[in-house]
Write a structure and sequence with these properties.
The complex is a heterodimer of chains A (279) and B (272).
Chain A: H1 19-22, E1 26-37, E2 40-51, E3 55-60, H2 66-73, E4 81-86, E5 89-90, H3 96-103, E6 106-109, H4 121-132, H5 137-150, H6 166-177, E7 184-188, H7 196-213, E8 216-220, H8 224-230, E9 233-238, E10 241-246, H9 248-252, H10 257-264
Chain B: H1 4-38, H2 45-52, H3 57-82, H4 88-126, H5 129-135, H6 140-177, H7 182-192, H8 195-221, H9 226-264
The chains are: A alpha/beta (279), B mainly alpha (272).
The structure holds adenosine-5'-triphosphate (ATP) and magnesium ion.
């Protein structure tokens, strides 16, 4: 195994204890989570926490299960074993109906944007507002305008998703995710497929959400520039578990060669740079 | 080992089928629950009415016309032999109204609407739109299945009546071509067809519509990843809907005949 174990905020105890009392600042907690698809084990006993007001960047090779992790957190998939807590309350056992109020506190940007193809950009962004708030149309229009402006997509209200490029869809997806000002935002590869300038706009937006709205964010990305810019904490997944977890500087100097290969995008890297050893 | 494997395979197949049936039942029950408790999303219904009703009309008219014409063409020589050509109307129109209209309309709708529903929902599934709905606190069955189900349930009876009507016209056109007396043609038709027969045909179509909608939506929701998965869902939706129509038809005919006998106390031929 690796020389450095990931930082564990809390040692695994055999007895499951309600997380609320122990870790009041942990918004999301995955505890001993396992998930497999038809014999392919994606997560094996994964324990991980996401703290309030913090932006955690999740790194990992393609297929390691980053998107699956976000879906587990929203209850869109159920783990095979283990438990998931939101603000200390277990969601793993909740019915679809009881999950609704929990999900309303989240916004999610899907990897493929997942815009509703039968609705215009306007209706896509307005969707959650219409669904949950009984607002007059004028107020909805104002929210949509404002969110689209944030992602630089004004004037596209009446287009259908099929008329947008991939990067434009991503930005509309982002506007839709933040439409009801969620407490927690899950971003699945927010800058993938964007030009560097737009990507930077999205990074700034992410930082602004974090600073002004005090949102908790989980950002899945392959874009290391973005990871260093927005992340308070970086987590790297590998083969069903966490192999690195810490602030950006620590990850940059991490001793594990798998981490170094990933952050430098260099598969031939043989060993860690000599600087130092950060767990 | 020899025999164990085939037996295990049969067992696994049976378990999968039973599991699938169970999931389908839960799925359908959930759709019904939303209809009766809290269907307020009327804005979602209109596009579906258009999709199911308006866009199916050409196919239905085409089917009805040809069925009526072929039926008349096939039956004419026999009636001619008996010297009873004007009775053609009775047979053609009764067959169209009671059986061929509803069943063929059902099959065509299973192909056109059922395939489209499964492919559309399958695409939404594989592009994570259904996950996105759930993530935004919306219920996919309520948002996607209920409007499609209601559209099929409401419009398939109308489409069936259209199919019947066009079939009757088609049959008449052929009879007219053969020089059958118009007055007698319609008079014999009217004496042979009771309101009950028309009701029976339309009654059946409601069940066909419900089956097509539920099966196709279910197949779409179960669609596997990729374009291939979506295509498979559409094909399966059609095949299973088609079989469901045939099976439902048998049982509904049995039920309606029992009901007819009970209501009008027609004594069985075996007793008289
Ligand atoms: N619905 C599903 N059914 C079956 N297998 C799945 C499903 N969703 C994900 N998987 C599998 O789980 C694994 C992890 O998938 P996931 O999409 O989370 O990867 P990822 O880390 O997000 O990769 P990428 O960076 O390419 O998006 C993959 O092997 C994938 O095939
Ligand atoms: Mg992914």
């Amino acid at each position: 195994m690796s020389a450095s174990e990931p930082i564990r905020v809390e040692p695994d105890s055999g007895e499951p204890t309600p997380a609320a009392q122990d870790q009041p600042q942990a918004v999301i907690r995955l505890e001993g989570v396992s998930k497999q698809f038809g014999g392919h084990q994606v997560f094996r006993d994964l324990t991980l926490e996401f703290r309030r007001g913090e932006t955690t960047v999740v790194l990992g090779a393609s297929g390691v299960g980053k998107s699956v992790m976000l879906k587990l957190i929203l209850g869109l998939m159920k783990p095979d074993a283990g438990r998931i807590f939101i603000d200390g309350a277990e969601i793993t056992t909740l019915s679809e109906r009881r999950l609704m109020p929990v999900r309303m506190r989240f916004g999610m940007l899907f990897q493929g944007s997942a815009l509703f193809d039968f609705l215009t950009v306007y209706e896509n962004v307005a969707f959650a507002v219409r669904e949950h708030k009984n607002w007059p149309e004028a107020r909805i229009r104002e929210v949509v305008r404002q969110k689209l402006a944030l992602v630089d997509m004004e004037g596209t209200e009446n287009l259908l998703p099929e008329e947008l490029s991939g990067g434009m869809r991503k930005r509309v997806g982002l506007a839709r995710a933040i439409a009801i000002d969620p407490e927690v935002i899950l971003y699945d590869e927010p800058t993938t497929g964007l030009d560097p300038v737009t990507a930077d706009t999205i990074n700034s937006l992410l930082l602004r959400c974090q600073r002004e709205l005090k949102t908790t964010s989980i950002v899945v990305t392959h874009d290391m520039a973005s990871a260093y810019k927005v992340g308070d904490r970086l987590v790297m997944l590998h083969e069903g578990g966490v192999i690195a977890d810490g602030p950006p500087e620590a990850i940059r100097r991490h001793s594990d060669v798998r981490v170094q290969r990933f952050i430098h995008g260099d598969a031939s890297l043989a060993a860690a740079p000599p600087q130092g050893d950060i767990p | 080992m020899g025999i164990a494997r085939p037996i295990a395979n049969v067992g696994r197949f049976a378990a999968e089928q039973v599991g699938d049936l169970g999931r389908f039942t839960v799925f359908s029950a959930s759709a019904f629950r939303w209809i009766f408790t809290d269907f307020t999303r009327w804005r979602l219904l209109r596009p579906q009415l258009y999709e199911v009703g308006v866009r199916s009309l050409p196919v239905i008219i085409f089917t009805g016309a040809f069925v009526g014409m072929v039926l008349a063409l096939q039956s004419y020589p026999q009636f001619e032999l008996l010297g009873r050509a004007s009775w053609l109307g009775a047979v053609v129109n009764l067959s169209v109204v009671k059986e061929l209209g509803p069943v063929l309309a059902g099959v065509m709708i299973a192909g056109r609407v059922g395939g489209a529903l499964a492919a559309g929902l399958g695409t939404m599934k594989v592009t994570e739109q259904i996950d996105a709905l759930r993530a935004m606190g919306a219920e996919p069955i309520r948002h996607l299945v209920v409007p499609r189900f209601l559209a099929c349930l409401l419009l398939i009876p109308f489409l069936t009546v259209y199919c019947d009507f066009v079939g009757i016209v088609g049959g008449y056109v052929v009879a007219w071509g053969y020089g059958v007396d118009t007055h007698e043609y319609w008079m014999h038709s009217a004496s042979a067809i009771e309101n009950w027969d028309i009701f029976a045909g339309v009654f059946k179509s409601v069940f066909f519509g419900a089956a097509i909608a539920l099966i196709s939506c279910y197949k779409g929701f179960q669609s596997r990843q990729g374009a291939e998965g979506v295509g498979r869902a559409a094909t399966e939706a059609f095949v299973v809907s088609f079989m469901a129509i045939l099976i439902l038809d048998l049982f509904i005919v049995m039920f309606l005949q029992g009901l007819y006998d009970a209501l009008w106390a027609r004594t069985s031929v075996f007793l008289s």
